Write the structure tokens for this entry.
Amino acid sequence: MVLEGLGNVLRKSVDKISSAIFVDKTLVESIAKDLQRSLITADVNLSLVKEISDKIKKEGEKYTKGVEKKEHLIKLLNDEITNILGGDKKELILGKKEKIMFVGLYGTGKTTTIAKLAAYYKKRGRSVAILGLDVHRPAASEQLEQLGKKIDVPVFIDKETKNPTSIYEKHENKLEKYDLILIDTAGRDALEESLTKEIQLLSKKISPTHTILIIAADIGQAAKIQAQKFKESAKVDGVIITRMDSSAKAGGALTACHEVNAPVYFIGTGEHTGDVELFNPKTFVSRLLGMGDLESLLEKVRSVTDEKAQKKTLQNLEEGKFTLNDFYEQLNSMQSMGSLSKIKELIPGFGKAKIPDELLGAQEEKLKKWKHAIDSMTLEEKENPDLLEKQTSRLSRISKGSGTTTGDIRQLIKQFKMIKDLAKGAKGLGDILDPSQMSQKDMMKLAKKFGKKKFMKFK
């Protein structure tokens, strides 16, 4: 988990406050000191760290009418961390016709991020196209072309032309039929005069509705200089921070962008196409505290869900026709959402669960085996799994053909039946296959009912 050290300190601080008999000066100073260390480790600017710790020391013991001192201190801790990460969520508001130009230095993951956003907005009904104007980096056009094929989004490039303005003019008329155009531009090792001039010329020619800067989280506080310079030279109105899945310096990058008033719209959390999230400081802090992030979880569900296929699956469940083919589609969606360790962080209550990474890895391997087993089944077996229990010779054939054991297949059938039974008892079948239809209260109940019982076995 990104900023794991900060998250651990925040959770321990909340536990320390909750279990304390009194909220006194000693407790407040202890909390402030722990927070100082973790923020410095996360590469947050020292003056900002001092400002926050001083405020916690000053405000920590104050009493607000109708609010307990413990609640006041926990809220103060939450609010201060949220504020330095950006405060309220800043959304990228898109109209009917949009052209977004992406800028950044070499090695920040700009091209990959553009593909992620193309897939993200395509899932949300946008007619998306990608325009490649990086004429300097070797193989930039080929990379965009391959990524476009992978997500089934048209890519407009010209491998022969070395003038980005000419490439735009060449494709300008073809791009008119798309309502969202994502534009990849060249990078450099540093924001030098030639890059600034090229970006300014393109901006004047294209008139993008938004210009977004891509920054890698591992540059830490240096993000402040980059964000400031790009804002001045390229009129950047927002930032996307990549490599958030591993960098201890992410705190520096996030807070630095906020300091120069460059809102962070998205964060990149991995290598896969679906590893991009809307950035919301409030829910991000909630995740750090181990309280989950339902908003991001639902966004992930929406981003990997094919609406038509999902409606068909729900209809099959309602009519009692849920088959292993439908279950297979759900396994695909789960894998597209990312690793189980990432999903665990988003589910309320699971962030604090002491589940070993190797155990989560074993669960992911199990999902892969189940998919292999279903691939080795006949159409009749997929539509009527009861046959596998009545005629056990089928299990041996499937296990040999899929590289699994008969035990793996029996577990698959058991899980399949549990989903069917669970659906019968749910308020709406969308509760099971489309959590975006659930209220926060219902999802908490579901996590408590099934998650806690299941993960007790992992201890």
The domain at 98-290 is CATH 3.40.50.300 (Rossmann fold).
